[in-house]
Amino acid sequence: MLPLQVIDSFLLNYNIGQALLLAFVLATVGALPLKSTKIIAANTILFGVIFILTPQALVPTHYLFLGIALLVVGPLLWTTSKN
């Protein structure tokens, strides 16, 4: 487990949108070895909702647009997946 001071010192340098974007990238890369398009689609939809529901006082507006784009792409991935 990481001490809270390490996490706090990391988050002080970045805004919450950048931390969420890093979490999205890491979750997507972590799901790639499973070779399941439905898991990638569910991950995309989930982070789209998270980006949209994040208060705009904490993140710049372009993260809202990223959330909208992820909510458009996620269901398309889900629909076109075979497994």
TrEMBL record:
It comes from the Archaea. InterPro entries: DUF8006 (IPR058319). Residues 1-82 form the DUF8006 domain. This is DUF8006 domain-containing protein. It comes from Halogeometricum borinquense.
